[in-house]
């Protein structure tokens, strides 16, 4: 099975509407942790996103000279077309942003929401940073960076799978 795990950082929470939020970064890794894509983009609509910047540390000047996400859409479509399983933490959020730019998983792809699985297992909802802390994960990079979050999500997913197989 070809599984990918991904995360995005965005300008906000709403990818649709008259003033849509946009993807600033996307990172996609394989099940083995190999980096398949790790890119940053300049938004086409938003000129500032102070609330998101306070969380993800990405400011307009950081992405001002970068290409827009349109340059990566062919590669994103290729990666998602080859994935039998798509893993993410609160994956529906990130998939909503991808859908807004015309990128979707295959119809037959298994969508695995690590947050929902962890919530079920722990009997309460955890933010990714708390779930990663709970399993003893040592961060590679800064939390709320798309690559660091994708790697942490994969670690939490593997931890869950070990427990679920053992049960």
UniProtKB/TrEMBL annotation:
Transmembrane segment boundaries: none
Entry keywords, A to Z: Exonuclease, Hydrolase, Nuclease
Location of the Exonuclease domain: 2-166
Pfam families with a match to the protein in the record: RNase_T
UniProt cross-references to InterPro entries, sorted A to Z: Ribonucl_H, RNaseH-like_sf, RNaseH_sf
SMART domains, alphabetized: EXOIII
Name assigned to this protein: 3'-5' exonuclease
A molecular function (GO) term: exonuclease activity
């Amino acid at each position: 099975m070809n599984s990918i795990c991904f995360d995005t950082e965005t300008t906000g929470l709403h990818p649709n509407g008259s003033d849509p939020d946009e993807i600033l970064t996307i990172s996609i890794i394989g099940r083995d942790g190999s980096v398949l894509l790790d890119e940053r983009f300049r938004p086409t609509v938003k000129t500032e996103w102070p609330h998101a910047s306070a969380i993800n540390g990405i400011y307009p000047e950081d992405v001002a000279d970068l290409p827009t996400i349109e340059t990566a859409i062919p590669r994103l479509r290729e990666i998602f077309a080859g994935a039998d399983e798509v893993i993410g933490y609160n994956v529906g959020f990130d998939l909503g942003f991808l859908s807004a730019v015309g990128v979707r998983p295959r119809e037959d792809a298994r969508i695995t929401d690590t947050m929902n699985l962890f919530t079920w297992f722990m009997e309460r909802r955890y933010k990714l940073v708390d779930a990663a802390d709970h399993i003893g994960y040592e961060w590679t990079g800064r939390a709320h960076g798309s690559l660091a979050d994708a790697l942490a999500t994969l670690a939490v997913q593997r931890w869950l799978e070990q427990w679920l197989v053992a049960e």
